[in-house]
Amino acid sequence: MTTLPETPAGRLRWAVADSRTLTVRALAHWARSPGDVVVGLLFPVMVVLMMGYLFGGQMDVPGGGRYREFIVPGMFAMTMVFGVETTFAAVAGDAAKGVTDRFRSMPTAPSAVIAGRGAADMLHSAAALAVMAVCGLLIGWRAHEGPAKALAGLGLLLLLRFALVWVGVYLGLVAKGPESVVTVQILVWPIGFLSSALVAPGTMPGWLGAIAEWNPMSATVTACRGLFGDPAATGGSWAAQHGVLMAVAWPLLITAVFFPLAARRYRTMGR
């Protein structure tokens, strides 16, 4: 019979070790299905190429600037947001197959299952961001404000993804199965497109532009464009003028709401 640690330090080491094991498990699954990983990484690249080359010549950025440099930070953020589907499918699949219940019956740290999933998805998102950055450089995008601000922008993108991991985990735990991903897409895609990622909110009807400017994804996009020195085309709203602040505040708020919900749902499953 396994003896569980009694001290706080022992419980922390236990949780870290179990989280590392479950992170490696998720990475091993991806290694056995490289095709799915490659498709997931290439999809946003195809969107960038399509928007940049097929439609970019007809798109004007309010305030001036090249549309390709305008769109790349937006696609960075969209990649982070659409990652919710990856998290959801993995968590819902494990729950539907009974894997999550088996973990709960084992002497596994309660936080390790969702922490391991989150760590694996953050590694996947960092890889996706690297691929997108290379693609952006190849089509002419540049970070004009130096490496420090560029890294700060990339950090804000990963902060957004970190917050959305817990949204995906929670939705995956409450879903009936991975086939419910369509429901998640109905939630995620409007958030992605009703934003400043592809077009300036000022070109939208007034009420729609206001919604787009207060979109959490728009906050990250606006902040990254400023940090990268790319065309911004920001509006006059408070949210648009304080992009960096909002790019930090929104992910912290999302994490504060959905991390406890995900942890509680995991603890109460089957009751």
TrEMBL record:
UniProt keyword annotation of Phosphoprotein present: no
Keyword field contains Transmembrane: yes
Subcellular location: Membrane
Membrane-crossing residue ranges in chain numbering: 37-55, 75-96, 126-144, 150-174, 186-208, 244-263
Membrane topology listed for this record: Multi-pass membrane protein
PANTHER family tied to this protein: NODULATION PROTEIN J
Protein name from the UniProt record: ABC transporter permease
Organism field: Actinomadura graeca
